[in-house]
Amino acid sequence: MNDHMSIYVGDQAIEEFIQFCKQGNFSHFFLIADQNTYNALGKRVFQSLQEQGWDVLTQILNPEHLHTDDFSITRVLATYDAEPRLFVAVGSGTITDITRFTSHRSRNPFVSFPSAASVDAYTSKNAPTTVGGLKGSIYCQAPIAIFTDLPTICESPKFLTASGFGDSISKFTSSSDWKFTQLIWGSAFDEGIYRNALHAAKQSASVVAGIQRADPQSMAKLMDSQFESGFCMADFANSAPASGGEHHIAHMWEMMFHWDKREGLFHGHAVGVATLIEAEWYERLRALSKDEAAALLGQAVVPDKDFQEQQIRQTLPLIADELIKSHPIYIQLADPKVLNTCKQRMLDSWEEIQTAASNVPSAQQVYDWLKLLGAPTTPSELGITPCQVETAKEFGLYLRERFSMNIIRKLFGW
Ligand SMILES: [Zn+2]
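Above are the sequence and the zinc ion SMILES. Below is the predicted complex in structure-token form.
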């Protein structure tokens, strides 16, 4: 079994943390927050450490244009005094990732005080980091413990909660896409992790009304789902259980924003809208009989390898080499032998495909949940143009080795 760090969720997070420090003989700290999260929680953590007579360095970053990048990493390392310290991240995704990176590279452990339910990456070992203008997922470390102050989570801005919810319910489609990949492409799979990913999504969806009211018990369940989703990725050592075709569409939009130097696209908002798009395809899939699927697959045409590569180079010049080198499934399907094998496997496992698809809620249901929380439901609300929607659908399927619903709808000619 995998060892997971201890996680506290409740009203006594700071007290629990002080006990943890006493037991672990920690007395030197480096607290990292941004101005907002410092005001909301970091200041109280700082004061509690000081009251113990412990040595605390702090770095409070400007939340404007804050990213896990060369700039913020250098700011943190410039303040750090190279003494052994327990790093303390007080914030959401970006602050946690900056701390994950700087603590790991300075050979210090870190703990996380999440400030919002906005992401599922608190338990992760990787930090999405932009260095020299290029964004990549960099291997760092997971926190040694997580202390969740529930009142802070409940009072966090509603759009952050809505973003976290969008990311959480994407496990409905990501887990099914992962199952499809096993059935059709023969990729590695783990039944227990699959069930956990699905459980995370179901749990978040089951408390959506409470989340809308920021009711503490429901918010605790949303946090719990976020941690569970993070553990799914950590345990499988791959994002597959928690990131499927919907994430690949959302990643395309995130990259487009990045290339255009635009700000303000929240991960979970983009993922929520992309989940809605995949849910519509899932609905169409569920309505198909095996014979109808066979007829559609009989007409499936996959453009040849050269044509596809040329399209990728033309549309995504900045990442084309990297994408082509990763041998995307859809390019491999240009080989008629590979395509026929996959078509046959789809038909042979049609019942299992339908069972996995039945876990995905209807598009209307996903829409209603997102709407209730005030989350965007259309690409235009995200600031994405119709042309960018098409590009993300058509090229998102090249991003990772996943036989996602997006590839299946291409084969069906939808
Ligand atoms: Zn995500």
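The chain has two domains: 6-156, 159-411.
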